[in-house]
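Comment thread on ticket #2218

A.B. wrote:
> Attaching the input chain for the structure job we discussed in standup.
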Amino acid sequence: MNVPDLRALADMWELEPAFLSLYLDIRRGIDEGFLRRRQKECLCALSRHKERSDLFLQALEQSERLLRGRAWSAEGVAVFSNPKRQFLEAFELPGEVENRLVFDSSPYIKPLVQLKHGWEESILVVLDHTHARLFVVSHHEILQKDTVAEEIVRKHRNGGMSQLRFQRLHDGYVSHYFKEVAEHLVAEVEKCRCLGRLRGIVLEGPKDAKAEFRKYLPADLERLVVGMVTEPSDIPDCTAVRAADDIMSSREVHRETELMGKLRDGILGRGLATYGLEEVRRATLEGRADTLLVQKGLGVRGWRCERCRSFGAGAMQLCPTCGRPPLEVDAVEELVELAMDRGTRVEFVAADGGIAQLGGLGALLRY
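C.D. wrote:
> Ran it. Output below, let me know if you need it in another format.
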């Protein structure tokens, strides 16, 4: 699956509208009615700017040609086009998406940022004392599967070696096997870490095998184990992946709860948190924001100046910084782009976790 570079997309911008961002739910094919309706609306808004209208049509034509020329396997797709830069990229989306078509001076990336956890990879280890399967999984899809096996004599036959000697040899074989599985796991974890997309590790199999295997994990890998599932070691791949996905989903809910707890403690305590669009925007602009918390689905009517990149909530006749007439935008999208550009982590959280009472926006601060 092609994974977008959100930081690179956030860094792209022009002084006037040039980027077409298209999000489509393609489970039932391309929604022609939506495309034609948005084309009409955008051309009407651009009717006084022939160059912008021509650029919009070029970008839309490029995007539609790409959409129709490829077989898509995901539920949704995002296409970004800017003919001025000869830029055209498409991404299959790991989840449901609302149809959107935006023509602006920068790519519209807020839906991508909200879906970013869907591209993160988890590692699943299914094992007993003789066989192990290692899976790299992303959004229910098995990206890679490795198998490790060790031939271990199961029974001691009378007349052969002593029971004590047999047990020592058997334990040595098991130890060697678990070490080999751990080495394979270390290699896969390093690959995922290099991509910056590791969610965690899940162990599945008989209870005694999982507990014994954990003793062979380095301390940093031990901390990455987010859950264990007691199952027969020969369960089908798809069943193992579903069980691991349930653990990851529960972990996401727990993570959101932790983030909201840190936000509340920061606001009530030492002041290492803030909330509200203007305060969060200022902290992000100054580089003080470590993590931006955004209510899922939140949008705020706002403005943005194409010349100096200032933005804010509400309506504005002239930019207070440079005096240029600003554009009407989604202020939350602008804040997300600013956060990505500053290297600030962005997390989307459910409204019922308490973020709605804070205006839908909060930030954990570095200082």
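A.B. wrote:
> Thanks. Noting for the ticket: Residues 163-195 form the longest helix (33 residues).
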